[in-house]
Amino acid sequence: MPSNTPSILALGEAMVEFNQSGINQPTYLQGFGGDTSNFCIAAARQGASTGFVSAVGSDPFGRLLFDLWQREQVDTSFVRIDDQAPTGVYFVSHGPSGHQFDYLRAGSAASRYAPRDLPLDAIAAANVIHLSGISLAISVSACDAAFAAIAHARANGTLVSFDTNLRLKLWPLARARAVMLEAIRQTDICLPSWDDVTELTGLTERDDIVDFLLAQGPRVVALKLGKEGSYIATPDERRVVPGHAVNAVDATGAGDCFGGAFIARIVAGDDPFQAARYANVAAALSTQGFGAVAPIPDRTAVEQTIGA
């Protein structure tokens, strides 16, 4: 592969968001979503070389996503255009009970992604490939592609990063547990969120959770704890890395921002505790604006905050 092959790849589904901005006569603001796409953008804003691995439809929404990735300097060489399927979209509504998410993703281009579509040379040349529970959940063929990507990465010395991102609208808990635990067994760096991992494991103590996850095989577990920060564990050491206090207005995508910043710093040479300190700040800053993508800070903003 050429030397400009991205050092960090992410596999999954990106979608176009329509977020309700009026109540009596609703209008919708167009934005973007998709956990692994958010991850890629967060890593790119920290200066990492990233590429997205997926499919979009040959439609205006797919073109919007290509425009987004190109603006964010995310390599789109590995995003295929599917003329037979749409790009996924979702709507965010607001009411007395809070946010409601409605997804139109069944049969989407990304859900039709299959092992034959994988950019095997790029995966072998990357430092890290990142996936999530959603990458596994959207369809059988996408799940097969994810496990094929993991196997190829491991065979070629590419690290595997995995974020649980449990979405029970996509699959039942029993299936999610079985499939995700198999993925975690083949993962080098596990990035679980507290709510996800307590549901998946049935455990509620931090050390029990990280003991369980490390026993599956990962070398690093970065358990995300929201405003508290993160609990970082390796086979040799573990400790809480405190969060960074901000006036948060919207935590959408903060976990994805943490993951992208954390992996960007690992690739840059940080140890997991240094990477977590940086990623905690990046994730905190990302909660100071609305949406998953727009508020993600760049490297300068994170470093200035750390140095302040």
TrEMBL record:
The keyword Transferase applies. Coiled coil: none annotated. Its EC number is 2.7.1.45. It holds the Pfam family PfkB. CDD domains: KdgK. GO terms for molecular function: 2-dehydro-3-deoxygluconokinase activity. InterPro entries: PfkB_Carbo_kinase, PfkB_dom, Ribokinase-like. GO terms for cellular component: cytosol. Transmembrane segments: none annotated. Keywords: Kinase, Transferase. Belongs to the carbohydrate kinase PfkB family. This is 2-keto-3-deoxygluconate kinase. The lineage of its organism: Bacteria, Pseudomonadati, Pseudomonadota, Betaproteobacteria, Burkholderiales.
